[in-house]
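The material for today's practical consists of a large collection of protein records. An example says more than a description, so a record of this kind follows:
***
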Amino acid sequence: MEGYKEKKSKSIVICGYPISIFFIVVNEFCERFSYYGMRAVLVLYFKYFLKWDDDFATTIYHTFVALCYLTPILGAIVADSWLGKFKTIVYLSIVYTLGQIVMAISAIHDITDANRDGTPDNMTFHIALSMVGLILIALGTGGIKPCVAAFGGDQFTDDQEKQRSTFFSIFYLSINAGSLLSTVITPILRAQECGIHTQQKCYPLAFGVPAALMVVALIVFIVGSGLYNKTAPQGNILVKVCKCIGFAIKNRFRHRSSEYPRRDHWMDWAEEKYNKLLIAQVKMVVKVLFLYIPLPMFWALFDQQGSRWTLQATTMDGDFGFLIIQPDQMQTVNPILILALVPIMDSLIYPLINKCKLNFTPLKRMTVGMFLAALAFIVAALVQIQIDKTMPQFPSSKQGQTKFINMLDTQLNVKAGHYNITLSPYTANADYLTFDEPFELFLNSNTSVQADIPDGNRTTMVIIKGLVSPMYKQFRDLESKPEEGGNAIRFFNGFGSALNVTVGDQNFGKIVPNNMSERVLVPRGNAQFRIFDGTRECTYTQELGFGSSYTLIIPPTVPFPQCQESIQPVLNIERNTVHMAWQIPQYFLITAGEVVFSVTGLEFAYSQAPSNMKSVLQAGWLLTVAVGNIIVLTIAEVIKLDDQWAEYILFASLLILVCIIFAFMAHFYTYIDPAKIEAEFAEKEPEEKKKESLKMDKKDSVKNFYENGKNSDSSSDEEEPNQTKM
């Protein structure tokens, strides 16, 4: 290509392998660590840092993933048509690195936290920075995706076929290694607390380490520059295929009249411009691409591991005894199972099926993979139903719910609306009471007051502190699960003087008498709360799980320093009781489906593709992933179901329907041997060229005959042209 100088390096060979592949493998490991590490914590960043609801967080997550799988087509065209693979990888890696750095900066809450309360004051700034970072990352990771593996293959000569095959095995191992390690490490980094003025979950570190790995990936790749074989861009076959298909459609439309004879295949209308071998190759590609049409539905389910399933894990118990699992770490189950299931499938399951003489064709395997993914979502729905049973029931738009606390030193009979309850001193009713409208509150039958309870569609806690007005104080309760599996704890000070309460390095602040403290998120474990009244101190201990909320009542008679028995915990939200281990079956099914569907699908596509058009089918495969993610964001935003389990069932039902359609299409598919078809056209080509040559020779001889005739007999000038019309 003009302007591009092809460079063949003097390869240094070690153990039969060019040393240049070392730089490529290390680059791929670091890049995959960077991508999957950032992606592992992304949906929780949206939910807890940017404060988006689950549906919108899911929408933006899948929009980003869709972009990551659309941009490889752009990267392939740029590499093959203009810049070449090396320059494309370098330039887009720079874009990629900038994107990761921008993401890390966007997660620093102190940048706009002017009042130092731990919450950014200008969330628009952080959102804008995040979106810029994600767009740059999508351009970078997608753009280099089709280039790196192919560039690695370019480092080998034709007589190093075995070494090239081993390289690809090591290359894909580095992808899985980077993915596995990053999905373990970055959630741990996110769970740390960091900050300049206030300590918050450390998203800057969780995004910063992947950014650092991307810097390493870029440096390593550039360092190996002098050792690479850099081939000149030869033109993109995808562009050529698209032009051929476009011409065939346009030509067919131009000749749509019945006066033109029909042709065997609609691609035959490209014969006026393209040779028959290319048209035959495009026919093979189109045949496989037609089978790709139902495939996006599989990816619509598969990629929800990083969104809906991660959000599901936030409402579960991650205590595995010997270690605590973060919700986003459950994604590591997938790469672990892949490493285990691929060899089991290849060396045990498939050979066993063959021995049973079952015709388990690639398309049948893919159908089974889709069915397994649908089963995974049915299991996820069953798990969600169990989770929903443990979730607090928050009031509807026309209702409110209230819990009463007796702060008197005597038993109290409370009549509120149609409820009658009896409260011992310094205790609360166990369950929230639901009201449709304000009611009259009766205390010990003879004292009443018109109470503005509930206050709108809210969950509230009413502290009864006397039998004469003002009788009560009303406080707003949480109406969602505490963030990130933490426990939302607050204190009500019924003591006669101001108190200061701390837990670890967190401070509840100064709590004046007859008032409620701010809520503090306390991690799981045996929490020790230190209570000071200015001169005395006592310690209250409570075991906490994941996702609970308590109001701790300090009575007027609290004895210092022994306050363990006198402080009364009032449960606002139950802890997560469904264990994360119940997600393992759905991960097993979706991963088994991936191994059977994805690996087989790529093998099938390559076996049915012409030798020079495998990249076209790879682009088509990546496009199905992008469309699958678009399906998810569409359903999340358009079809908003009240129950998450119902959405899981909807996706499972859609995939089962698509699975049936795909099985029907696969039944009528005829397997071909592209090499044989190409060989047949290769044999025909010399004969056609020979016929064309003879035809041209005949034309030349006729032309010479008449030219000679003109020179010898001028009287035939008027007659000869009429005799030679062809």
Notes: Residues 17-235 form a domain with the Growth Hormone; Chain: A; fold (CATH 1.20.1250.20). The CA atoms of residues 52 and 326 lie 20 Å apart.
